[in-house]
Every structure is written in C-alpha cells, then in structure tokens.
C-alpha cells in the first residue's frame, strides 16, 4: 500500500493518501515560525489502521525539517496525546 503525505497549503492542511485515496487530513494555522495543529480527521474506512499516527509523524517530521515549532494552544487533542507518547517529538513544542 502506497502512503503519501502532502501539505495542501491552499486549504491549510496536510493530507494523507493511501493508494491515491484521501484517507485523512490535519488542519493547521500558520504562524511566524510555527504551526498550530488544530484538527485531525481520518476517514471512517481508514480508522484503526494507523493512519492518524502516520499522519502525525509525517507532519511533525515536516515541521522539524522546515525548522518550525508547534504552538501548544490551540492544539488538536489527538496530536497533543501523540506527542506526549512520542518524546522524540516533544522538542517541537513551542515554549
């Protein structure tokens, strides 16, 4: 199965596609040097298959590569919990 995560800047969201089909997205608000990750949604056909985690990891890897940080408020509850469970991403949280 092919997985692709892209930044759809026109809609202020990252999208994850599985074999070309939109499986979920993470909406954000761009700030100066930071992103507020405000809402994550995974299609019902893809729930329970690790799509949300793959999306979180892909987005946070892109945030790191771009030298940005994640604004702690507002933050999507799913992303907040995901970062808490993955300490190697906690450094991305803005103070």
Features:
five-stranded mixed sheet; 95 residues; single chain; 25% helix; alpha+beta
In short, what is this structure?
This protein is α+β, with helices and mostly antiparallel strands and 95 residues long.
Structure notes:
With 95 residues, this protein is an alpha+beta fold. It contains two helices and five strands, in the order E-E-E-E-H-E-H. It has helices at residues 51-65, 77-85; strands at 3-8, 13-18, 21-31, 34-42, 69-70. Strands 1-2-3-4-5 form a five-stranded mixed sheet. A hairpin with a 2-residue loop joins strand 3 (21-31) and strand 4. The termini are far apart. The mean pLDDT is 95.
Q: Report, as a whole number of angstroms, the end-to-end distance.
A: 38 Å
Q: Largest sheet, if any?
A: 5 strands, mixed
Q: What's the shape?
A: globular
The run of helices and strands is: EEEEHEH
Low-confidence stretches: none
Mean pLDDT: 95
Find the structural class using helix and strand composition: alpha+beta
The percentage of residues in β strands lies in 35-45%
Strand order in space, largest sheet: 1-2-3-4-5
Can you count the beta strands? 5
- Work out the radius of gyration: 12 Å
| Helix content estimate | 25-40%
| Annotation field: number of helices | 2
């Amino acid at each position: 199965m092919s997985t692709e995560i892209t930044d759809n800047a026109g809609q202020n969201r990252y999208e994850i596609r599985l074999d070309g089909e939109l499986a979920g997205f993470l909406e954000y608000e761009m700030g100066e040097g930071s992103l507020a990750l405000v809402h994550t949604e995974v299609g019902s056909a893809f729930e329970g298959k690790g799509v949300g985690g793959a999306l979180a990891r892909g987005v946070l890897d892109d945030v790191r590569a771009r030298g940005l940080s994640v604004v702690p408020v507002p933050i999507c509850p799913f992303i907040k919990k995901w970062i808490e469970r993955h300490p190697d991403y906690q450094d991305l949280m803005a103070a």
